[in-house]
Amino acid sequence: MRIYLTAIAFFAIASAASGQDIPDRPVHRSEIVAAAKRQFAAIDANHDGIVTREEFDRFRASPAGRAAAATSNPFEHVGGHWFDHADPNNTGRVTQSMAAQRPLSMFDQADLNRDGVLSVEELKLARAVMALSGH
Questions:
Q1: Is 79 left (phi over 0), alpha (psi -120 to 50) or beta?
Q2: What is the pLDDT of residue 12?
Q3: Staple partner for 29: which of 7, 22, 116, 117, CB 3.0–4.6 Å?
Q4: d(CA 33, CA 107)
Q5: Are strands 117-118 and 27-28 parallel, antiparallel or unpaired?
Q6: What b-and-e string marks burial along 41-62, b requiring 16 or more CB atoms within 10 Å of the CB?
Q7: Minimal CA–CA distance to 75: which of 23, 19, 8, 128?
Q8: Contact by Cβ (8 Å): 92, 100
Q9: Phi then psi for 25, rounded to 5 degrees?
């Protein structure tokens, strides 16, 4: 069952990343936290701690937003569904903790030994799932 959940988590990462490169080195949970904070800060235009749909749409249309959508780093990628994933209850407001919830959840599911690091072996599984899914 754990392997199955891991495959699902990596399929979700692969789907979100759509052809992006998964690193060929261990990835620490703190990297995911830092990336989520950077993404949120870039999107939160008025720096009030809340991202609205309008702020997200403006960010996506900006040069920085286009660069974040085009990056090959799956932990820095900001796709078109970022807001929907971060706001599953459709409140129209996303906090920093809400924005980090999904990527951290996927990370935690993939961290088989619960050591806070996705090992190269765990990441190899991600590549295998990506290959099987056609990404």
A1: beta
A2: 47
A3: 116
A4: 10
A5: antiparallel
A6: ebbbeeeeebbbeebbeebbee
A7: 23
A8: no
A9: -160, 160
* Max Cα-Cα span within the chain: 44
Residue 110 to residue 117: CA distance in whole angstroms: 9
Are 39 and 78 spatial neighbours (Cβ–Cβ below 8 Å)?
yes
Task: Judge contact between 53 and 113, C-beta under 8 A.
Answer: no
Q: Does the reported pTM lie above 0.90?
A: no
pLDDT at position 48: 98
Burial class, 119, CB count within 10 angstroms (exposed 0-12 / middle 13-18 / buried 19+):
middle
pLDDT score of 129:
65
Measured over the CA atoms of residue 8, residue 40, residue 76 and residue 31, the dihedral's sign is negative
Mean pLDDT by groups of 10 residues along the chain of 135 residues: 50 46 85 94 97 97 93 81 94 96 85 92 74 64
